[in-house]
Sequence to fold (118 residues):
Amino acid sequence: QLVESGGGSVQTGGSLRLSCEASRYRTWMAWFRQAPGREREGVALIYRGTGDARYVDSVKGRFTISQDNAKNTVYLQMIDLKPEDTAMYYCAAESRGGIWSDWTKWEYWGQGTQVTVS
Fold:
C-alpha cells in the first residue's frame, strides 16, 4: 500500500513537498504525474538501496526525490513550480523492468495527490 500526501495549490514559483509512505520496503519507487487529457508521465525515480535518482528533463534542477528509510517514506521536494506542473501526482513502487518512465511497467500505485500551480 502506498499513501501520498502533501499536494495543494500554490502560486508560480512556490514550493511543495509530496510524501509517499509505503506499507513495506520497496526497492524501486517513483513519482508520476498526470494532467487532464495527457498520458501519465514519469517525474522522478529512486533506487532505495543507494538513493540513486533519475528525473525527467522538465523537472531537473527543480524537483528532488529523497527517502527516509526509518519511515519507509519517499519524498518529492518541488521548488520553482510552474503552471505546467499542475497534475495529479502518483507514487509508484516496483518496476517490472524496461524504461522507468513507462507507467505500465509499475506494479503498485497510490491514490494520487493533486498539485495545482497558478
The radius of gyration is 13 Å. The chain has a mean pLDDT of 95. The longest strand covers residues 87-95.
